[in-house]
Amino acid sequence: MDVTITNIRKEFGQFPALYDLSLDIRSGELIALLGPSGSGKTTLLRLIAGLEQPTAGKIFFGEEDASEKSVQERHIGFVFQHYALFRHMTVAENIAFGLKVRPKANRPPAHEIRKRVSDLLDMVHLTGLEKRYPAQLSGGQRQRVALARAMAIEPTVLLLDEPFGALDAKVRKELRRWLKEFHDRTGHTTFFVTHDQEEALELADRVVVMSQGKVEQVGTADDVYDTPNSPFVFSFIGESSHVPVTVRDKMVLFQGEPIGTTENGEGPGELFFRPQDVVVTTDSQSLYGKVTACRRLAGTRIAEIDVANNGHEPYHLEIEVPLDAPVAVGADIRFRPTRWKLFGQ
Ligand code: ATP
User: Fold this and answer.
1) Which residue's CA is the closest to the ligand 1 atom numbered 30?
2) Which atom of ligand 1 is nearest to the CA of 44?
3) β-strand 257-261 against 267-273: which pairing, if any?
4) Residue 106 carries which DSSP code?
5) Which residue, by CA, sits nearest to atom 9 of ligand 1?
6) Model confidence pLDDT, tens digit, residues 87-123
7) 291-to-44, 76, 252, 272, 337 alpha-carbon distances in Å
8) Confidence of residue 244 (pLDDT cuts 50, 70, 90)
9) Quick one: which of 239, 308, 248 has its CA closest to 277?
């Protein structure tokens, strides 16, 4: 099911939680909504579900205007971080719940419900556990039951709000892979809210980066990591540092000294770069600073560097340095970004 969100605005009292937000989601996409706390991710999910009404704007499921439809009519599957299973029901009863409570006219016959539950148990790899109660399951198993329950009603759209947020890192990683496979097999249009950018980048077909009630960028993991379209996205996704520069006659100048060339822009701007996109050099056309710390980070080594700022608070930058050539704390160092993006030109 395609989902089209057009000029949605949501105010809580006077407070706008979402401003004029538009998105075109294609049928079958796995979409991650990623952004800092309070950026409006859950509000957007609740609007899609029909749990909140927009102040302005519309949401279409396919060609149909869903804005006027009730939660039930929208036929949504939900999984929330703390959306507890029914404790007094077995796994099978939990999964069958959404079908059993349907009015008689729409309710599948009992043998069909049993077959659907059995297929879903197989799909979420929980066959054999159907008679257990939620208290007899691990956290990861419970969330898989929650997903099977959401899928039982054959939803038009699947909404997942931090579904693995309460689980430990290792289980989260396993479930992440599993969810990707599950999505690839079932092909439901899915919105997935997460704080965790690694999760978003690994899982999603496209990531919607949100900040302060607005969409900052929509793109694949490569798009948002390699070509961020704003200082916010550059800083928010992955590690980065930035310094103020001036572009004059295609030269990029930091504190009056050239550190590179550019084809774009003229005048003051902000130069953003990632720790791995630098080269340590002795060349004078470079940034110059003092190493304040050096730490091993898995397969890399990161140096923290203070670059003097004309008597003001120094610029604190982080760069990757060769593993086999650790730099000494207190040493002076020169380096030059080899790949960067300039904003504010
Ligand atoms: P988090 O990652 O912390 O869950 P979020 O990105 O999901 O945050 P929302 O929960 O959508 O953010 O909240 C967006 C903004 O709207 C926040 O500033 C929040 O305080 C406000 N907000 C959300 N729900 C309500 C409500 N029912 N009444 C008033 N303000 C609300």
Assistant:
1) 12
2) 11
3) unpaired
4) G
5) 40
6) 999 999 999 998 888 888 888 999 999 999 999 898 8
7) 44, 53, 23, 19, 16
8) very high
9) 239
CA distance linking residue 162 with residue 33, whole number of Å:
10
Question: Contact, 165 vs 81, CB < 8 A?
Answer: yes
Q: Which residue, 306, 309, 247, 234, is CA-closest to 274? A: 234
CATH label, 3-231, candidates 1.20.58.100, 3.40.50.300, 2.30.29.30, 3.10.20.580? 3.40.50.300
Instruction: Dump pLDDT digits (tens) for 69-91.
Output: 888 888 898 888 766 789 999 99
Residues listed for the chain: 345
Q: 204-207 long-range CB contacts below 8 Å, 24 or more apart? A: 204/30, 204/31, 204/32, 205/29, 205/30, 205/31, 206/29, 206/31, 206/32, 207/31, 207/32, 207/34
What phi and psi values does residue 301 have, to the nearest 5 degrees?
A: -130, 130
- Residue among 11, 39, 46 whose CB has most ligand 1 atoms within 8 A, to mutate: 39
Question: Hey, where are the domains in the chain?
Answer: 3-231, 239-344
Whole-model pTM? 0.89
Output the six-digit token pair for 32. Answer: 């991650």
Neighbour tally for 284: CB within 10 Å: 9
Domain 239-344 of CATH type 3.90.550.10: no
